[in-house]
Structures are given as structure tokens and as C-alpha cells.
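Researcher: I'm preparing a figure for a lab meeting and need a structural model of a single chain. I don't have an experimental structure, so a prediction will have to do for now. The sequence is pasted below. Please return the structure as C-alpha cells so I can convert it later.
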Amino acid sequence: MATDEHGAQNNAHPDLGVLAGGVAVVTGGASGIGFALVEKAIASGLHAVIADIEASAIDHAESRLADAASAAGVEVFGHRVDVSSEADVLDLEAAVSARFPDSPVSLLCCNAGVGGGGPVSRASDIDWDFVLGVNVKGVANCVRAFVPKMAAGDAPGSVMATSSQDGLCAAQGVYGVSKHACVALMEALYQELRGRLSVHVLCPNVVATNIVTSERNRPERFGGPRRTSAANPVLERFKAFGMCPSRCADLVFDAIRTGTFYIMAESDDDPGYVRLEAETRMKAILEDGLPYRPRSAYIASVFNPRTPMPPKR
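Model: Understood. Here is the structure written out cell by cell.
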């Protein structure tokens, strides 16, 4: 429960209008879920910062959102950042403060993430460093750079991070380990903030994003970009089968309004599956069971090239 008039009542801001006029900082904001979060922030009356590692994608996103931002009476501002670099994130915070000196950061979306990494028994040090560097350290860097000032200010605010369904079920691979850590980090942050800011973690099913080709932006210190062919069948299937990123953004803003911490973003094509994964894991823990991930026919179809593509949405 809130400790002062500016806090989040039961982790919620029932009137999202209290955030309007502030700044939304969205990492990984140039595409996918991040872009949808930026769109939703602008529609909610927040200035929007598109923080992303891909400069060309930032330029494209700014161009696409310029008219919406103008109509809403807010600014949209792009800034390149590698969230796995503390120095980069500190530069981002400084740039945001300089661009919006009179507006508080009211929403921090730690959304940047990467896939890959491989099995835990075979992943190299550099693979671990890359995946954990973005998916865990990247969230921690953003939290350290922005949250103390947000919490010390006199404006209401909210912090969210994008994890995955892999953060709630029996983990698989380096990616699953990183997403469990992301959930744990946000659980710790919620308890530390004691209601001063609302805190939320997004755990979606398959989403139509570019995450399967995220190694195209792999920094040099982690081995450099891994090029893939122009035609990537897995990416095409993610885009065809995955839920629309705007669905995730809607659920995030609903969670800020209602106080939901664990946002189980389930596909309409796979209803109840994320909840089933979480329940299965908890049952194993409480009943002396073994790690097990229930099968999803929907997810299997995404990765099975023999399954026909769904009709275009």
C-alpha cells in the first residue's frame, strides 16, 4: 500500500491520467513490444523516449510516431543505447534529463531483450555474458539509473520489465535462466519500493517480434553480430503465429491501472497456457515433483515448418 499521496495504491494507479505529462522511457522501443509500449504511452499523454540499440530502427520509429505525438501534444525522442553497458544507460538517463528537465520520468519500461544462448550445458562464457548482460544486467542498469530519482521525486510513477512465459515455468536454456532472473529482479524491486512506485513484470507467450534474430545486434565485446539469411523461416512463423505486440502493451497499461504484478500475456490461440506453466512449476515445488514444462500444441506449431501458416491477420 502507498506510503504517501504520490505512491501506488496496492501497486496500482487506477487513474492513468496521473502519469500524463511525464516521460515514458522504453528500452527496445524501436520495434515489437517496445514500439507498442511507446505508442500506448503517447496515447496516454506521456512524452516518449525510444531507447534502442538499432539506430536505423529508432529513426524509422520516430518518423512513424511523429504525427501521433504531435496530435497528443507530447514529444517523442530517440536515443541509441546498449542496455548491457552501464555507461550507455547512464548516458541515456542524462540525455532524458537534459531533454525533459521539467518533466518526471513517470514510466520506465525495461523492455529490451535478446533470445538465444543455447543449452546451459553447452553455452560458452560469451553466450552467457550476452544473454544475461541484456536480459538481466540491462534491467538492473536501467533500474539503478532511473528508479532512485523516480522514487525520490514527488510524482507518481511505474516501472515494468519484459520477461517471458519462460520466467514462470520450468526453465529451458540460458534464455530461460535469464528470464527467471528478470522476474526475481522485479519481485525484489517491488519489495524495496514499498508502494512508492508501481512495479510489474510482463510474461508473454509467443509474440510477433524480431527476438529470434536479436543476435544481429550482438555487441562486439560479446562476439559481434551473428548474421542470418534474409529469409528466416522461424522469424516468419513468429510473425505469423505470434500475438500482436499491441496486445502486450494494452495488458501492461491495464496492469498499471489494476495493480497486477505478474502479467501473464496469453495468446488467444493458446488460452490458459502461461497460467498452466506457472501452476505446473509451483505444484512440482510444493509436492516434491520434478521440473516439467507442459506441452503446447500452439507453440509446437510455431516451430513446426510442416504446420501451415495461419491466415494473415
